[in-house]
Amino acid sequence: MDAKAKARRGDYRQGEVDFEAFVYPSIRQRPINEVTAAEILRVLRSVESQGFQETAHRARQRISQVLRYATVTGRADRDVTHELRGALTAVPTKHRAAIIDPKKVGELLRAIDGYEGQPAAAYALRLAPLLFVRPGELRAAEWDEFDVDAKEPVWRIPAAKMKSKVQHIVPLATQVVALLGELRPLTSYSKYLFPGLRSPDRCLSDAAIGAALRRLGFAKDEASLHGFRTTASTLLNELGYNADVIERQLAHVPSDKVRSAYNRAERLAERRSMMQAWADYLDGLKADQDGKVESLT
């Protein structure tokens, strides 16, 4: 099997595949301090022409990493890939699979409650709709980030784990606190709420949670872990909740990141009320097989 076929199958680590299949054949033997932006662009254009737009962008990032390291260590003068910004075809935005029909949301929640697989995956699926954080933030959640015994329980996600690089506060509904109480005896041997199958020192993989959804009968184009964010955003807006409160809870940071960093708790009381109302609403959808729940109040 040639390198490009392996790239399609994902048999090797993606970065190595990109270089082996597309970069090495053209510039591997070139002295690193002599490689030009034009040469790199020719390589990347060739990748694009074969239909691998995402691979082209990924390869440019890898080449940039190599050149930055070469610059720091005195092997090159600069990272010439900076000259290529905007030169590649933009990758179309992919919309994650999400269920937004209330009746079908109820069906999904009932299916999740009936999941009998690995406990970490089971609880990740049960908590995801209630928290609607990004998949990586959920999977990497650590026990010491949660304060469930406080009068107003919260999950404080460290800035380093956030896409915005700003600490994010997630108010915890009573249903979430109850689920965490059930989960703790099962995974407290790890710092992670959802430890991986092979090692307690690593969190559960996105693939493992996706596989759990597949076992429940939901196809990749029907439901996804990230899709719970879309579900919450869509239904909360349709139910008339304040858009700014929803956006803040989704951690969609406004352009003025400095201001947002100093106002992490802004509208926290409203967000707390919304998160509890959302959890109650999901309970209603789960209990009503006709999906007739129409209000958060």
Can you offer a commentary on this structure?
- 51% of the residues lie in helices and 3% in strands.
- By secondary structure, it is mainly alpha-helical.
- It has a three-stranded antiparallel β-sheet with strand order 1-2-3.
- A hairpin with a 6-residue loop joins strand 1 (146-147) and strand 2.
- Helix 2 (14-27) packs across helix 3 (37-49), helix 6 packs across helix 9 (206-215) and helix 11 crosses helix 13.
- The longest helix is centred in the first third of the chain and has 20 residues, at 53-72.
- The protein is elongated and about 65 Å long.
Order of the strands making up the biggest sheet: 1-2-3
Low-confidence stretches: 1-13, 257-262
Could you say which overall geometry the principal axes of the C-alpha atoms support? elongated
Structural class: mainly alpha
User: How many helices?
Assistant: 13
Instruction: Please compute the radius of gyration using only Cα atoms.
Output: 23 Å
Roughly what percent helix? 40-55%
- Strand segment count: 3
Q: What is the fold-level CATH name, i.e. the topology of the largest domain?
A: hpI Integrase, Chain A
Total discrete domains: 2
At CATH level 2, the architecture of the largest domain is: Orthogonal Bundle
What is the structure about, briefly put?
Helix content is 51%, strand content 3%. It has 297 residues and is mainly alpha-helical.
